Amino acid sequence: MSNIFTPVTRKKSKARIAVMGPSGSGKTLSSLYLAKGITGNWGKVALIDTEHERGRFYADRHDLGTGEFLYAPLTPPYSPEKYIEYVRQAAEAVGEDGVIIVDSFSHAWDNEGGVLDIKSQIAQRQGKNDYTAWDEAGKIQNNLVNTILSVNCHTIITLRTKMGYAMEINDRGKTVPVKIGLAPVQRDNTEYEFDIAFQINREHIASLSKDTTFLDKWSGVITEDLGAQLGAWLSEGAEPDRCEECGAVIMPTPKHTVAEMVESSVAKFGRKLCIACAKKEVEKQNAAKTVSE
To answer: What is the CATH number of domain 16-236?
Structure first.
């Protein structure tokens, strides 16, 4: 038998992204920006909408910079089988270089026809209870997640979040509930099945709870240019522009693309600089100018 191990190389791959946040945080619009950036074509973006057709509000909005994407409302019951069929049809519609947005994946868990409903129905069968029902319901959940992860195109899911709590002992020795942050409405740790997990707050600022790409500790507003960077890295193996001072990846801002920022810093300072290092360089130059005067 020949050895199964060979030298590893990074291959072209598909985006598997989770976007989490409370109501009003901008999950849908952020996902649309990411999708457009990744594929470069609004016609290659398909939105599956469980949010009472609110996804239609973002269609072809000049004020938001959105275009005409593919769209299908998903109505109750929110069964795993229904999600799988919609995802299958969406993948066929966008092709292998397109993007599916599932908005939201939380309905498949705790809404009508979701996995929790299925678990309750199983528990009512003779010889079953709440504990033993999880074996069957868990397999249904795993099949749903694995199906979404295995489609031959890029995938973005949104997850609603709620405040999470843990029981801790306070300084008086009493056990009390303590807020531990926003927990996604889905099975525990579902977001970790994805390559990237964005957490967005009510001010529309995103941070990362998981990343296997180059984003590292990035935080900020999600833009189309950020999606384009991810798409190039995943599909072409293109390495992102890095700051020649600190080595950090140069990230886009809501006002400027990475290309614009690189061009500006090279013109002003003779090298690629991130925003933080560019600001320090300006301060250094201003201080030197003050001393000379």
So the answer is: 3.40.50
pLDDT in tens, 85-103: 999 999 999 999 999 999 9
Q: Where are the domains of the chain?
A: 16-236, 241-293
Which three-class secondary structure state does DSSP give residue 287? helix
Close Cβ partners of 82 (under 8 Å, ≥ 6 residues apart): 74, 113
Nearest CA among 125, 99, 104 for reference residue 42: 99
Task: Give strand pairing partners of 163.
Answer: 182
For the whole model, what pTM was predicted? Answer: 0.81
Rg (CA), the chain: 23
Contact (CB, 8 A) for 94 and 88: no
Report pLDDT digits (tens) over 133-148: 888 999 999 999 999 9
First to last CA, the chain: 77
Inter-CA distances, 7 with 130, 214, 235, Å: 46, 21, 20
